């Protein structure tokens, strides 16, 4: 029986060429799998037909936008996931979603190999292959660009020689990856970290410096999940899409950073994630109102580790799975409304309301009606500071 390879297929030049390239290098039949995680662009059926025209023996497409939002973006919102305190894991979240479909296709078509189009110096090769090994430890992984030195020049020459039905002349100066949760731009003139980004690189966000009226929005959460916008029920996908549009129109969610890649190099990345930043900002503030202090302090440590695991491609790891359990438990009271003003590139919380609130006005007020017994504070401070006081006496004697 001829060996079969499942290829993560985008419909672009590199993965279209990879179909024939893999067949030549390995003698295997190629099954192309395209997964829609809200990246926009061409119709899925167009992509499926192109894969077949480029030599795939089978081509599958999956509309996974709701699945991606519910099973991958929502956990990131609950985790307030910001790698290096800034990056909302746009690309890192989509890889395990795609991997799940690749492994399912490999089982369906009796394939023993899964292929992807990543290079050998980025994070995505790890995310794909670590995920594939977790879900299909018997499967082998190959990457034509990395393993067979399939450079872009070679890819264009291969496409022209084979007369593949794909444009080979247009070359963007940037490397772009996008989905419904955000958009990542790198390479080109951005590789000089002194160069500022230009407006041409942005698509999800408008220039925040452009004068415009502010936009006020109320986001309703239930147990950490966004369930309504301005009182109208929404799915997680709809919440992200609506806030992409509204926060994006205000220039919110632009991130320009030098980040630490898993492979050990530093990389300059420009992101735009308006919906993600707006939702995480609102969710963080609702947690401030509804989550007990010690739980909140510990959760912040968990959030950082969760983000690192996902960034590093360990979505399916035992630790990530265990941390999910903690985060879901910590989210059980995170329900209520957050009012935000979207304007000038900033999402600013202006109001909070929750039936699960731990904020007690009578304890917090300094006016009449204060129920906090201030007479107990002195004794509390004496005991709280006692160990430091004893150590300070010793140090003074020395």
Automatic annotation (TrEMBL):
Residues 174-390 form the Arginosuccinate synthase C-terminal domain. It comes from the Bacteria. Its EC number is 6.3.4.5. L-citrulline binds at residues 87, 123, 127, 175, 259, 271. Pfam families: Arginosuc_syn_C, Arginosuc_synth. Keywords: Amino-acid biosynthesis, Arginine biosynthesis, ATP-binding, Cytoplasm, Ligase, Nucleotide-binding. InterPro entries: Arginosuc_syn_C, Arginosuc_syn_N, Arginosuc_synth, Arginosuc_synth_CS, Arginosuc_synth_type_1_subfam, AS_cat/multimer_dom_body, Rossmann-like_a/b/a_fold. It is found in: Cytoplasm. One of its GO terms (molecular function) is argininosuccinate synthase activity. It catalyses: L-citrulline + L-aspartate + ATP = 2-(N(omega)-L-arginino)succinate + AMP + diphosphate + H(+). Its main location: cytoplasm. The keyword Ribonucleoprotein does not apply. L-aspartate binds at residues 119, 123-124. Residues 4-165 form the Arginosuccinate synthase-like N-terminal domain. Pathway: Amino-acid biosynthesis; L-arginine biosynthesis; L-arginine from L-ornithine and carbamoyl phosphate: step 2/3. ATP binds at residues 8-16, 117. The keyword Amino-acid biosynthesis applies. Belongs to the argininosuccinate synthase family. Type 1 subfamily. Homotetramer. This is Argininosuccinate synthase. It comes from Streptomyces ficellus.
